[in-house]
Specification:
The complex is a heterodimer of chains A (380) and B (648).
Chain A lengths: L1 H14 L2 H8 L4 H21 L4 H22 L3 H29 L6 E2 L4 E2 L1 H18 L7 H19 L4 H17 L4 H22 L2 H11 L10 H13 L10 H4 L11 H34 L3 H25 L18 H18 L1 H4 L2
Antiparallel strand pairs in A: 1-2
Chain B lengths: L9 H36 L1 H12 E6 L6 E2 L5 E14 L6 H10 L8 H10 L5 E5 L4 H10 L6 E10 L7 H4 L2 E3 L2 H6 L10 E3 L2 H5 L1 H5 L3 E6 L19 E2 L6 E4 L3 H11 L4 E6 L6 E7 L5 H5 L3 H9 L8 H4 L9 H10 L9 E3 L2 E3 L6 E3 L7 E3 L1 H6 L3 H20 L23 H7 L3 H4 L3 H8 L9 H12 L10 E5 L6 E3 L13 H16 L4 H4 L8 E7 L22 E8 L6 E7 L5 H17 L11 H8 L8
Parallel strand pairs in B: 2-10
Antiparallel strand pairs in B: 1-8, 2-3, 3-4, 3-5, 6-7, 8-9, 10-17, 11-12, 11-21, 13-16, 14-15, 17-18, 19-20, 20-21
The chains are: A mainly alpha (380), B alpha+beta (648).
């Protein structure tokens, strides 16, 4: 086995093409980069149509993708050791910023999600999407797995404090994503099934409490209209109804690029952001959606493969959390647009226009690549 | 990397990780399957349903109003046409605050303040996304005024539409009717979908009676709309396949009216109230229908204001009232020719039998005295003279001899007491009294009994009897055609404006009136000819008449004169004066026109109504008669004999 590996490795080394050599030097993973690039290009093509042929929007989106790529490239160079060491500090910084944002929100008497740094509006909650799984992985790295109940309590605190702060902004969508990102680490670390069952019960109880005491009216409405969109066809149910019409009317082969009447005539709300999946469904049909989903599956699969190739607990847990979180994003967005899930503001990764979230995602993949490509420095 | 309590088992941990990874993959596969399943449901199984929904979303059907049919007179002159104009339209769904918008429009003078509520109700009663016209026929000033403020009124816009125009203004307005904005009550009667896009609807006259033919069939055009309901022009395939159905223009109405005669009638009326109806006795064609005063139908098409409407409604002369078919008056002496016919037919009198008229009539078996209406003594009078000179005493006696039953039964086929069936709505039936009628009219049996005095009054068309000008014109037509009778009609044909194809309707004959022998009809006609020659209308026609006129004057009492008092015109307030009647047909030997003219409070029939009738007949007949020979022998002979007879 090892011999075989070595021989192919050396054989591969000899036959590496120029591009592959460059990727290797940049600590990039070729297949993952290819997958991300294909998704992004597909997204740009769709965005041109979904934005109503707005070149400016397409250009800005491409620039953001570029920014994300730079973030990915930079983070790919970072050694896993350094990532592990910075996890706690990154997390604490995030908590402080979240508190500041919440405080500003209270003072400003309104929803507040970002810090205006003058040149850029920065969302601390976005940072937390990476910082929380990092800290969870860091916490579990030195501890025997599966985690002890005490560890689980600590992890719960690590996850729920930033999630709570984010939910208070209020930004339920991001809070859920933060929770998921952290929980995925714990799940991969071997959370006992007893706890999973318990968590379901707690979640049910929490849902009841949340429904009656914590959720804002508009959030409650979202859930209600998810259950039956027809109750409010012109109000909160409008998004869901229109997006289902868009997807359904696309059929198998779609109405053709820029020929989706639902999206082009603006019946579909948020057509270039959260609901861009419906535009693809309308214009490219089931086929177009299947291609996109295959690309996503490829990205997630490759990312999971890379995660499995890392050699310590921290890297494995963090890398697989990043891969799985990506899948969860895709699932939540597509599920909400197609009417499987309630409408929560989660963009379609790499395809939806705008948002700090894309940079965060790319940064995540940068970290993933770093964890993978630096593995030989750690062990073997 | 050192564990504190438990030692890390790297191998076991790696196995745990792999197990969890496998689980994650399985869960993800499950989720992906759910998603794909959902997409298959949406895009394959329910595709048709959603496709239909998306089609419904993107298009809106915009009606294309059909052109309303024109209205033409019998000579082809256009009496009602369509004119392009600009109107203010409002789409409720696009107006954020209806009340505020209407108040704003009132402020800039586009909607009268006192109509805001009406407009509001009208707008609310229309279908969603339908453009409701709220102000018709805008002036250029109003258009400019709105253009300046347009941005303040989303959902309100100016649209080019066609409105109704009546080139002759108030002429024949009661026959033509008018069009006005579709009201709430109209909406309950019509098929709303057929009227989507239509602004105006016929309100009276033939405009209302022939609404279905005039309206045509609106077309529609599917237009692309965005989510805000605004029309958009987008290239791309979804912009194709929009359906359009062109409208089908309404039918043109070809009226029986004769414009020159109508005009002559209305001109002759100037300043007086009354009505004139002229018929073609051989077809039932209504050649003239005038009810005076009239009103300008244009104001309704323009969007009449409440104040204007109230002014029309409250006018003492009730211009909106069609006197020709809705005005009910005692026929007065105009009933005499028919009663004379009854006398002849029943053998109560013969044509040449004379009766002596001492100027007073004593009802047999009673102490009641009936006077000669206009005083005077006619002396020995036969049937012809009694008609020509309108001898009341002769007809008192005749009526007494005939009795109410025979009079009622004889008069009824002529059309007294029932609507003539003219092809516009609102006709009244008048009263042809009978024993039965009187019994029902009065509750008290003694009051409800029929008395000889009632019959006597009947003989001169007073008392209970009443007619509309329309009915009297119809009776005159029956006299002219010697029993032939047709349903009066304003519309004699329709024309398809697209193909130019005309369809003329056949005259509708009514049951022949069994009056009497042709000789007996001739006696009555001769009596009526005498009216203009030596009788009550002698002064009106004089010597220069190019055709022979058979006529009868009539005077309808507005209020009763006490037993022994005499009616003195100059002493009675204008509105208390008698109504003046005149019926005639001409040329007497081959009638082409039969008419009835009523002048309210016109006094004696010959003085007010006859000159109007003369003008109508001249206007209608002179262009149609062959140029008269220099000295028609017949006319000279006619005038010679009776000239010596002193006026009644």
């Amino acid at each position: 086995m090892i011999r075989y590996d070595t021989s192919t490795d050396s054989a591969a080394r000899r036959t590496l093409s120029g591009a592959a050599r460059v990727l290797l030097a940049l600590k990039m993973d070729g297949p993952l980069l290819l997958g991300l690039t294909l998704v992004s290009v597909y997204g740009l093509v769709v965005l041109y149509s979904a934005s109503g042929q707005d070149w400016g929007m397409v250009t800005r989106h491409a620039i953001r993708l570029g920014l994300g790529a730079v973030a990915m490239l930079v983070l790919a160079q970072v050694r896993p050791q350094m990532l592990r060491n910075s996890a706690l500090w990154l997390y604490l910084l995030g908590i402080v910023l979240l508190v500041i944002v919440d405080a500003l929100g209270v003072i400003g008497k309104g929803a507040q999600r970002w810090l205006d740094l003058g040149f850029i509006r920065f969302q601390p909650s976005e940072m937390m999407k990476v910082a929380v799984p990092m800290l969870c992985a860091w916490y579990l790295n030195d501890r025997p797995l599966p985690p002890s109940p005490l560890s689980l309590a600590a992890l719960a605190a690590i996850i729920l404090i930033p999630a709570g702060l984010t939910a208070a902004q209020p930004d339920l969508g991001t809070a859920i994503l933060i929770t998921i990102a952290g929980t995925l680490v714990v799940l991969m670390a071997g959370l006992p099934f007893l706890f999973i069952g318990g968590a379901v019960i707690v979640a049910a109880a929490g849902a009841w409490v949340g429904w009656h005491y914590l959720l804002h009216d508009y959030q409650r409405e979202r859930v209600l209209t998810f259950i039956d969109p027809q109750t409010d066809p012109l109000g909160a149910g409008y998004h869901i109804i229109q997006s289902q019409i868009a997807i359904g009317s696309g059929g198998i082969f779609g109405k053709g690029w820029m020929n989706g009447s639902q999206s082009q005539l603006e019946y579909l709300p948020e057509r270039h952001t959260d609901f861009i999946f419906a535009v693809i469904g309308e214009e490219f049909g089931l086929l177009g959606l299947a291609i996109l989903l295959l690309l996503y599956v490829f990205v997630v699969g490759r990312a999971l493969y890379l995660a499995s190739q890392t050699q310590d607990t921290f890297a494995r847990l963090l890398a697989s959390s990043i891969a799985l979180t990506f899948f969860v994003y895709v699932f939540i967005n597509t599920g909400m647009v197609s009417g499987l899930l309630p409408v929560v503001g989660v963009p379609l990764p790499l395809v939806s226009y705008g948002g700090t979230s894309m940079v965060t995602l790319m940064a995540g993949f940068g970290i993933l690549m770093a964890l993978y490509s630096h593995r030989k420095l750690v062990g073997s | 990397m050192a564990g504190r309590v438990r030692i890390k088992d790297t191998q076991a941990e790696h196995r745990l990780y792999l197990r969890r990874s496998a689980m994650a993959v399985a869960v993800m596969a499950l989720m992906a399957a759910m998603l794909i399943g959902r997409l298959v449901v949406l895009q394959v199984m329910r595709h048709e349903h959603y496709l239909e929904l998306s089609q419904g979303n993107r298009t809106r059907v915009e009606p294309i109003p059909a052109n309303r049919g024109l209205i033409l007179d019998r000579n082809g002159t256009v009496l009602a046409e369509n004119q392009p104009s600009y109107q203010l339209e409002l789409v409720r769904e696009q107006v954020p605050d209806l009340v505020a918008a209407l108040k704003g429009l009132a402020m800039i003078g586009l909607v009268p303040e006192d109509e805001i509520e009406d407009v509001q109700r009208l707008v609310r009663s229309r279908r969603a996304f339908e453009a409701v016209p709220i102000r018709l026929r805008l002036t250029e000033e109003q258009i400019a005024n709105f253009a300046v403020h347009r941005h303040q009124f989303p959902g309100v816009d100016i649209q080019a539409r066609s409105t109704r125009a009546y080139p002759y203004g108030a002429l024949a307005v009661h026959a033509l009717g008018y069009v006005g904005a579709i009201s709430e009550s109209d909406l309950t009667r019509i098929d709303r979908s057929a009227y989507a896009g239509t602004t105006l609807i016929g309100k009276l006259g033939v405009e209302a009676a022939r609404e279905s033919e005039l309206h045509g069939k609106n077309g529609f055009r599917e237009i692309l709309v965005n989510a805000q309901g605004r029309s958009v022009h987008v290239q791309g395939e979804f912009g194709l396949n929009l359906r359009t159905q062109p409208p089908k223009a309404g039918q043109d109405l070809l009226l029986a009216l004769d414009l020159p005669a109508q005009q002559a009638a209305e001109d002759a009326f100037t300043g007086r109230r009354g009505a004139a109806i002229a018929l073609d006795p051989h077809t039932g064609d209504v050649l003239v229908m005038a009810s005076m005063p009239g009103f300008d139908p244009g104001v309704f098409g323009r969007g009449i204001t409440r104040t204007e409407y109230q002014a029309l409604e409250n006018n003492i002369d009730i211009p909106l009232f069609n006197r020709a078919i809705r005005g009910v008056y005692p026929p007065g002496s105009t009933v005499k020719p028919v009663l004379g016919m009854a006398g002849l037919a029943h053998g109560v009198v013969t044509a040449d039998e004379t009766k002596y008229c001492p100027g007073v009539y004593r009802v047999p078996g009673s102490r009641r005295i009936a006077r000669e209406g206009r005083g005077g003594v006619h002396g020995h009078t036969d049937m012809r003279q009694a008609i020509a000179r309108s001898c009341d005493v002769y007809f008192y006696g005749l009526a007494y001899d005939l009795g109410v039953d025979r009079m009622h039964d004889f008069l009824s086929p002529f059309g007294f007491g029932k609507p003539t069936g003219i092809d516009i709505a609102g006709e009244r039936s008048g009263i042809l009294p009978s024993r039965e009628w009187k019994k029902q009219r009065y509750r008290d049996p003694s009051e409800g009994a029929w008395y000889p005095g009632d019959s006597v009054n009947f003989g001169i068309g007073q008392g209970f009897m009443s007619v509309t000008p329309m009915q009297l014109a119809q009776v005159t037509a029956v006299l002219a055609a010697q029993g032939d009778v047709f349903k009066p009609r304003l519309v004699k044909g329709i024309r398809d404006p697209e193909t130019g194809e005309t369809t003329m309707f056949d005259p509708v004959p009514l049951p022949q009136v069994q009056g009497g022998t042709p000789e007996q009809w001739d006696v009555i006609m001769e009596g009526m000819r005498g009216t203009a020659v030596y009788g009550t209308a002698r002064g009106v026609f004089g010597r220069k008449v190019d055709y022979a006129i058979a006529s009868k004057t009539g005077t309808a009492q507005v209020f009763s004169v006490a037993q022994n008092a005499r009616y003195v015109e100059s002493q009675v307030a204008e509105r208390m004066r008698d109504h003046s009647w005149f019926i005639a047909f001409a040329p007497a030997e081959a009638p082409q026109i039969a008419l009835a003219v009523l002048v309210e409070n016109g006094g004696f029939g010959a003085s007010a109504a006859a000159p109007i009738a003369r003008k109508i007949m001249d206007a209608y007949l002179l262009p149609r008669l062959p140029p008269p020979a220099p000295a028609p022998a017949e006319a000279t002979a006619q005038q010679a004999a009776p000239a010596a007879v002193p006026p009644a």
